Amino acid sequence: MSTHYRGRFAPSPTGPLHFGSLVSALASYLDAKKHHGDWIVRIEDVDGTRCKTLFSEQILNTLNSYQLFSDETVRVQSNHTETYEHYLSILKTQERVFPCNCTRQSLSKYQGFHPHQCNSTINEPHSWRLKASDIIYSYHDPIQGKLTFVEDLKNTCPILKRKDDYFSYQLAVVVDDHQQSITHLVRGADLIDTTAQQLHLYSLFGWNAPNLCHIPLITNNMGEKISKQNHAKPIINGDLPTLLRALYYLKIDLDAVTTISQALNLAIQSWEPNKLKGIQHLRLEEQDHYFI
Ligand code: GLU
Fold first, then answer.
1. Do the Cβ atoms of 275 and 251 come closer than 8 Å?
2. Per-residue buried b or exposed e for 109-134, using 16+ beta carbons within 10 Å of the residue's own CB
3. 33 lines ligand 1 (CB under 6 A)
4. Which of 173, 213, 214 to mutate to test the pocket of ligand 1 (most atoms within 8 A of CB)?
5. CB 44 near ligand 1, within 6 Å
6. What is the best residue among 6, 8, 9, 12 to mutate for testing ligand 1's pocket, by most ligand atoms within 8 Å of CB?
7. 118-137 pLDDT, tens per residue?
8. What is the distance between the alpha carbons of residues 159 and 170, in angstroms, rounded to a whole number?
9. CA nearest neighbour of 136 among 148, 120, 147
10. Which of 283, 249, 272 is CA-nearest to residue 34?
11. Is residue 214 in contact with ligand 1, taking CB distance under 6 Å?
């Protein structure tokens, strides 16, 4: 793997950028720039039923308005389906995946998880699922400490390609991070749940996994992630006070700054993931409730 730091921010364009996503974008940007690395933006729009081009444009405009510029051309996942098909075919040859005709209804008796096998065929509409595994993955997260995934691969078989032909985030994210030579992922703690499956895919393809770091998730008073699903508002473009509040949740307190570029430069110097050690959730403070 390349030793030159390459980080990325990979939003799914299911809505405009909200406060929680700005915090994630900043964390990945600051970490990359602190290491004199590249920071790359990728649009994760494999789910054609939920993602919209309009939101991709809005997200990129908002990032630019905060002077968060991708160091390379923005990669758009929906332009790379042939690549995902190629890597899925490798897993088919290795017999690591199986076709599945199960429906949400037929899986309800397993609480939505998928049992190890099913009697599905490729003669009916089917998805492709990754086989379960007993392997236990573990890694050291600079913020969350040592994470060990004991049950994650045993109890379910994630979909890699859906019945409606869309590829899943799990396959696309691993293929893209590998193809783009990403060395460091800095992302929200909600994605810890996806990590074991991604480490497993890296291992099946024989690739080195990037270094992983999960920042605290910004939540509302109910402890829920600020997200489009619970109506987080779009943030205002290029707004210094918004930027300063987002930095505050990354334990960077700046006063007396007058421009966005000044704030970013100082934030790069002040960024210290250690200050967030052990924190998985950060509740939005009362004064910031206008972001949701
Ligand atoms: N596209 C994912 C999301 O918006 C993030 C993927 C990642 O950082 O691994 O939640």
1. yes
2. eeeeebeeebebeeeeebbbbbbbbe
3. no
4. 173
5. yes
6. 12
7. 888 898 999 999 999 999 99
8. 8
9. 148
10. 272
11. no
* pLDDT at residue 155 in the model: 80
Question: How much distance in Å is there from the Cα of 82 to the middle of ligand 1?
Answer: 21
C-alpha to C-alpha distance for 188 and 218, rounded to whole angstroms: 9
CB of 177 closer than 8 Å to CB of 208: no
Q: What pLDDT was estimated at residue 134?
A: 94
Residue located via tokens 């065929």: 121
Ligand 1 atom showing the smallest separation from residue 187 Cα: 8
> Going from the N-terminus, what domains does the chain have, and what CATH number goes with each?
6-291 (3.40.50.620)
The amino acid at residue 1 is M
What is the CA(188)–ligand 1 centre distance, in A? 8
What's the pTM value of the predicted model, to 2 decimals?
A: 0.96
CB-ligand 1 contact for 12 (6 Å cutoff): yes
pLDDT score at 2: 61
Q: Is the CB of 10 under 6 A from ligand 1?
A: yes
Mean pLDDT by 10 residues, the chain (292 residues): 89 96 98 98 97 97 98 98 98 96 88 83 92 96 98 90 97 98 98 97 98 96 85 94 98 95 98 97 94 90
Q: 41: Cβ below 6 Å to ligand 1?
A: no
DSSP state letter for 206: T
**Helix, coil or strand: residue 15:** coil
What angle do helix axes 19-34 and 53-65 make, rounded to 10 degrees?
A: 60
